[in-house]
Amino acid sequence: MSSPPASSPPAQGARLVVIGAGAVGVTIALHLRRLGHDVTLLSSDAPGSENATSYGNAGWLSPGSVVPISMPGMWKKVPGYLLDAQGPLRLRPSSLPHIWLWLLRFVACGATRARARAIASALRPFLAGAADRHAALAAEAGVPELIQRKGLLIVYPDEAAYRADAFGWQLRRENGVRWNTLDRAALEAVCPGLSPRYGFAAQLPDGAHCADPGGYVAALATLARAQGVHFADGHVDGFVLEAGQVRGVRSSGRVVACDSIIVAAGMGARALGSMLGDSVPLVSERGYHVQVPGLAEEPPLPVMMSDLKFGITPMTGGMRAAGQVEFAPEGAPPDWRRARILLDCLRDGLPLVKIGGFSTVGHWMGNRPSTPDCLPVIGPSPSTRGVFYATGHGHLGLVSAPWTAELIGRMIGGDTVPEAAPYDPARFLRFRL
Ligand SMILES: Cc1cc2nc3c(=O)[nH]c(=O)nc-3n(C[C@H](O)[C@H](O)[C@H](O)COP(=O)(O)OP(=O)(O)OC[C@H]3O[C@@H](n4cnc5c(N)ncnc54)[C@H](O)[C@@H]3O)c2cc1C
User: Fold this and answer.
1) CATH code at 358?
2) What residue numbers bound the domain in which 89 lies?
3) Is the beta carbon of 20 within 6 A of some atom in ligand 1?
């Protein structure tokens, strides 16, 4: 890993521009403002917009998400998933020329127990205590009801299927995650009406969920505005640089002058990185949701179907089923068949609930900004002084936002942050997509 260019920290009261008003950017802007900086949040979309991935996610704030997506033996399961038209994974062949290198590195990153273990311990600080951090933020923003602390359920067909996941549970244990197991009778008591297919479960009492991720981001933005963060609309399309130091951000023909910028633009960080000469090798793992209106308490707590790889979350706007991973060429239109699969899974998982046809449910597609090593990109630009990245959170951007903001706050303040080494953008210096 190369060291970042020498950069004197911006003084308190420095002019900072945060690019991107998703969960990550808004949380960072709020935190930096509290540290006394002059913060402008510049984004193509308004906070809470449906266009941001932060709008439509499953809302899980799970300490158990330390288990990386890339795990030993994953490569053996992938062909089966791909051959199953109703399965949780789809790869459009036309995307392969652009992503094959990323895919190889992704499969390799968790291919041994030692590697998966290293990823899990690097993810832990984002997840442990995340429910507390989000609850405090939501309370301050006047929306305490949006962070619900009812625990989380991961359900399995039977105990043997749970035991087959033993390494994942071992990683959770090693990282301080607490859970208890439930047999069918206990599961029925906690989550009535679940399909009889599910005979065993793990319950994570410290897990929580956000009951309206878009509304939550919008509420945090309102709080940030009240605390003095400036908001500007606009798509960033260039930078003003002087002798390797950023001096301004270009957006729609105007320049916003600044001392430092934080690129928190989700998938958009890849293009912004290339404008600066940095490699931010993000690939979109596209995901979908369907939301059945009028069923806000159904099920009573979030449930992950381990076999079908999707989650059901009770949201204020209805019951949301979220999941699927689709690799498609950039800009390709959504394939709503993926959302229909989620609707079928939902019917299957909760057979007693009356659910109308596809036209009666809300549906959405978003881009998980994913790195080839399952870890986010947080830290200084290898090429340009005054530029910091905060992106690449993949499946975990909502839960990870507060800890990301704390790391960025320390970096901007000039601290060395040794525990952020695994997220250093410089690790991708020689990896270009
Ligand atoms: C189906 C699904 C389920 C998920 N479930 C969960 C979950 O349960 N828990 C969890 O923690 N995570 C979950 N995630 C992942 C999570 O949603 C993302 O990691 C997170 O939303 C990323 O947030 P972000 O702020 O980095 O990006 P975004 O929310 O995408 O925001 C990026 C912002 O940057 C702006 N932008 C981009 N480019 C530019 C530019 N050039 N100029 C100006 N602005 C720009 C965009 O307009 C947007 O507002 C899920 C994702 C999906 C798809």
Assistant:
1) 3.30.9.10
2) 68-125+145-209+283-370
3) yes
Question: Rounded to an integer, what distance in angstroms lies between the CA atom of residue 302 and that of residue 154?
Answer: 9
CATH code for the domain of 401:
3.50.50.60
Q: Closest Cα partner for 177 from 213, 128, 135, 210?
A: 128
Question: pLDDT value at position 77?
Answer: 86
Residues contacting residue 119 through CB under 8 Å, at least 6 positions apart: 68, 70, 109, 110, 373, 374, 375
Query: What is the tens place of the pLDDT at every residue in 181-222?
Result: 999 999 999 999 999 999 999 999 999 999 999 999 999 999
Which of 19, 27, 54 has most ligand 1 atoms within 8 Å of CB, for mutation? 54
DSSP code at position 420 = G
Does an H or E element contain 108, and which? helix 96-109
Ligand 1 centroid to Cα of residue 398, in Å, is: 8
The answer on 107 and 196 residing in a single domain is: yes
pLDDT digits (tens, 9 = 90+) for 263-318: 999 999 999 999 999 999 999 999 999 999 998 788 999 999 999 999 999 999 99
Residue 252 lies in a domain: yes
The CA distance from 393 to 377, in Å, is: 7
Question: Both 247 and 321 in a single domain?
Answer: no
199 lines ligand 1 (CB under 6 A): no
- The yes-or-no verdict on residue 2 having pLDDT over 50 is no
**Single-letter residue type at 49:** S
How is residue 398 written in tokens? Answer: 């909502």
Helices 130-140 and 213-226 cross at an angle (nearest 10°) of: 60
Q: Is 225 domain-assigned? A: yes
pLDDT tens for each residue of 68-113? 999 999 888 888 888 888 899 999 999 999 999 999 999 999 999 9
